[in-house]
Structures are given as C-alpha cells and as structure tokens.
Amino acid sequence: MSSAVVSTSAAQGRPFVFEVEAVAELCSQPSQAELFGEGRPPQRVVPARFPGAFKNSRLAGVAPASRLAIRPTPEMVSSGIAEMDAFTGGLPRGCLTEICGSPSSGRTTLLLSALAAATRRGECCAVVDASDTLDPQSVAAAGIELDRLLWVRCGEDATRKNSTARKTNFSPDKKRIFKSDLHDSEHSLEQLLRATDLLLESGGFGLIALDLGDLPPQTARRIPLTTWFRFRRAVEHTPTVLLAVERQSIAGSCSSLLIKLESQERGIQRLTNYQPRPSHAQLLTELEITAELGRSRMDRKPAGSAGITFASKTAWAG
User: Fold this and answer.
1) Of the segments 36-50, 88-102, 301-315, which one has the largest average pLDDT value?
2) pLDDT (tens digit per residue) in 188-206
3) If DSSP codes are grouped into helix, strand and coil, which group holds residue 165?
4) Residue of 132, 244, 127 lying closest to 188 (CA atoms)
5) Which candidate, 286, 242, 269, places its Cα nearest to that of 109?
6) Beta-strand (E) ranges in 124-202?
7) How far does CA 120 lie from the centroid of its chain?
8) What is the pLDDT of residues 33-47, one digit of tens each?
9) Cβ(264)–Cβ(305) under 8 Å?
10) For residues 96 and 115, what is the distance between their CA atoms, to the nearest angstrom?
11) 24, 108, 173, 190: least buried by Cβ within 10 Å?
C-alpha cells in the first residue's frame, strides 16, 4: 500500500501522512448523472475536501477542538503582600508575570516582597539584574535569605566603565555619551537573555526575576515576541514563577498576569527646621502604591476592573 506526504503551511516541519487509497476514497467525485441527472449539460464540479472524514474509521482517533482537555488553573503562591494576594490570588507558577510601572512606582517593593516570601518557603531564587541596580542592604532589610538568592549582575562591566570615565577630566560630546549608553544597554540586554535561558534550562528555582526596569524603553522593546514565547514554554510545566519587572508591558500575550503600579509620596521626614528646606534635607519614608490588573488569565476579575492601594515604608523608617 503506497502513501503520500502532505505538508501544510500551518504546521511546517510536521508532515501528515495519508494513505493514497484512503485519500482517493474520501475525495472521490460523484458522477454527473448523480449530481444533475441524465440529459442535463455537464457543469464544473468542485469536490468537497474530505467529506465525512470524522465518520471514517481510519480517522476516528481525531478529536474535535470542542473535546480537547481544558488546561488546569496554575498553582498560586503568595507575593508577600496581603493586599496583592487578595487582589490577584497571588503569583502563578509555570507562568510569566509582568510588573510594570515608572521609577519609584513600587516595582522593587513588590519584587523584594515576592523574593522574601519565596525564600521563606525554602525555595531558591534568582534575580537577573540588567542594570546592576539591586541594593544588597534593601534585600537584607526585606527579609530575604541571602543563601537562597542568586544575583546575576549583567550591567557590572558597564557600571565600572562609567565610574572610571567620571574620574577622568575628559568630557565627550552628548551624542557620544548617548551612543555609549545605548551600546551598554544592548550589551546588558544580551547578557540578560543568555542568563535567563541558562536558568530556565537548569531548573530548580522557585522564582526567577528579570529586572528590566532601568533599561531604556527602546532597548527593552527590542526583545522579540518569540523570545518571550520561548521563556513561557520553558517555564510552562515547572513550579517556577517567572517575573519580568519593566517600565512598560513588552511581553504582550505571552504573559499570564500583568500588574500595573503607580505611587505617590505619603510620608516625608524633615531633617531641618530652616526655611526654605533644600531637597537634600528631606527623606522619603513611605509610599502609597496603587495596583491595577492589566491582564489576567486566571479566570478572576476582568482586566482593569478594580485596583488596590497599599503602603510601603523605607528601611530607615522602621
């Protein structure tokens, strides 16, 4: 019995093999007498494609889309903030979660709280820091167990280069500085993507965070959507929580949960009673953070339906 290989554009690289006799039986054209009766002029006949395919015994194993199994709801773990857990149900395992907001909007607060909650559960965590901005003192003050945290510093070389340039008396023009900053950002982004691939392949992490918050938006948007899709598929059947901390959402539909943060000053500690007070004579002690749900695939509240507000205190404020 001979066979034929048929490739479709929707599934390149996955050819379907059909038996020639079966295809001929399914695609057999009816006679003109059966269609039009005797005595009628012949007309062009367009054969139907695979009529009665699901009634044939050889294709009985093909299940229609309506009978496909529904993907179970992922396990949710605590983010370390009670208000956030009540709002979103926590952070989903095996999914990509985006945390977006402008600088000083509470992104780091939520990230450190999630890391602290994960290390308290006895899980190992990793932070891939694109700009080398993670503060070890803030990490320790948040209650994170440092023995369970891997800190990947992608922007360390660029930071050392910039600090060395400041010590010199050479002052290049602004255009050269701008090009140098973009080159350093692209180099850090390349290191971040490589490190993330290695971490996802190795496994064993309860939480992996990608800190892209201090990269220029035009650099962060250069990550192709196929890369985010690859990250999502790599973490899909694992107990890992994958976080992406960004200024704007760049993962698109690949993220299962999108949290947008905003903040405003709530507490300021004055260091002097003189008037007028200079900016360096005041310390920010507390932020009021507002969270909004931008996207959720957890079958909970629709996107943008509601928001929450919680406060964040600095380490020196007690």
Assistant:
1) 88-102
2) 999 999 999 999 999 999 9
3) helix
4) 132
5) 286
6) 125-129, 149-153
7) 24
8) 554 555 555 555 444
9) no
10) 15
11) 173
Residues in Cβ contact with 185 at an 8 Å cutoff, skipping those fewer than 6 apart: 130, 158, 215, 216, 219
Question: Which overall architecture, per CATH, does domain 77-255 show?
Answer: 3-Layer(aba) Sandwich (3.40)
Nearby residues of 144 by Cβ (< 8 Å), 6 or more positions away: 112, 115, 116, 119, 125
91 exposed, middle or buried (CB, 10 Å; 0-12, 13-18, 19+)? buried
Q: Which amino acid is at 171?
A: S
Spell out the long-range contacts of 156-159 with Cβ–Cβ below 8 A and sequence spacing 24 or more: 156/132, 157/187, 158/132, 158/184, 158/185, 158/187, 158/188, 159/131, 159/132
Contact yes or no for 51/26 (Cβ under 8 A): yes
3-state secondary structure of 201: helix
Q: Tell me the pairing of strands 257-270 and 241-246.
A: unpaired
CA distance 186 to 297: 31
CA distances from 43 to 36, 46, 216, 286 (A): 9, 10, 65, 81
Token pair listed for 78: 């605590």
* pLDDT above 70 for 279: no
> Residue 298's Cα: distance from chain center in Å?
15
What is the average pLDDT value for the chain, to the nearest integer? 75
**Dihedral angle at the C-alpha atoms of 29, 32, 37, 43, nearest 10 degrees?**
120
Q: Which residues make beta-bridge pairs with 286?
A: 267, 313
pLDDT at residue 18, rounded to an integer: 47
Domain spans of the chain, in order of start: 3-67, 77-255
